[in-house]
Amino acid sequence: MAQAGECNAVWCADYKGWFRTRDGTRIDPLTITDAYSRYLFRCQALDAADYAHSKPVFEAAFREYGLPGRMRTDNGAPFGSNGESGLTGLSVWWIKLGIVPERIEPGKPQQNGRHERMHRTLKQETATPPARSRRKQQERFDDFRREYNEERPHAALEQKPPATYYQASPRAYPERIGEVEYPADWEVRRIAGAGQIRWSGEYVFVSHALQGERVGLEQIDDEHWRVWFSFYQIGVLDAAKMAIRRPERPRGKSHKEATPQ
Fold first, then answer.
1. How many Å from the N-terminal Cα to the C-terminal Cα in the chain?
2. How many CB atoms lie within 10 A of CB 114?
3. Are 72 and 46 in contact (CB under 8 A)?
4. Is the peptide bond before 78 cis (omega within 30 degrees of 0)?
5. pTM for this structure?
6. For the chain, where do the domains classified as CATH 3.30.420.10 start and end?
7. Residue 257: what pLDDT?
8. Are strands 232-238 and 224-229 parallel, antiparallel or unpaired?
């Protein structure tokens, strides 16, 4: 896991785990924090833990606070998938924004420990017991977020609240996201509807999440090519086997790491 040595180097996101308000309404709380300052950007009651409901919450946070370098999550939907690439619609969108998806190892929630500790406090103070309705539950979340950011002291922050430390990102959310570009000497292929590219007259599967997107292939030798989506390495194409060998943990560089200083 990357070290969060400054604000916006790493943001953390997770779903708290669904529960029902006293009137029977299902609540899926999506939370987003800054790993360095502990600042809580969003605590939003949603109808479902999926791409359609998650994206508007992230987009609103990006518009208000700017873009992080990395987004740390677990491997569950909508952040990660069971597919070999691990990509989802949400993580593909992050990559196009220059954000590195950073997924913790399965079964190791301690790798997102700061966020997990916030979740325990959130549950204790806002959902034990739950509110009587969605509107009342969101009011509890909003009150908790305000108190957590502006009043609650944190031992790791010299007993000061997160708002004392947090500063917005200098990277603003773009009004338009252009198509990914690659070096002129790379091969470029567009992912077809079945998640495949055409290579030497045959089809090679890459990722369903990348349908319609362009990937770049960087030649290693006569039979091997690194497959990239923007700065994010998907794997290595073995032209003899017509298959992509996936790295143990897909690698990528954050916008700051990838930009020459």
1. 23
2. 19
3. no
4. yes
5. 0.89
6. 10-164
7. 46
8. antiparallel
- Tell me which CATH homologous superfamily contains domain 10-164: Ribonuclease H-like superfamily/Ribonuclease H (3.30.420.10)
Which positions ≥6 away from 158 have C-beta within 8 Å? none
Q: What is the biggest distance separating any 2 CA atoms in the chain, rounded to whole angstroms?
A: 64
Structure tokens at 202: 């045959």
Question: Would you say residue 98 has pLDDT above 50?
Answer: yes
SS3 per-residue string spanning 48-97: CCCHHHHHHHHHHHHHHHCCCCEEEECCCCCCCCCCCCCCCHHHHHHHHC
CB 162 within 8 Å of CB 40:
yes
Cα(35)–Cα(159) distance, rounded to whole angstroms? 16
Tokens of residue 124, six digits = 């204790």
Query: Angle at the Cα of 8 (from 119 to 164), degrees rounded to 5?
Result: 75
**Among residues 85, 114, 119, 115, which one has the least CA distance to residue 101?**
85
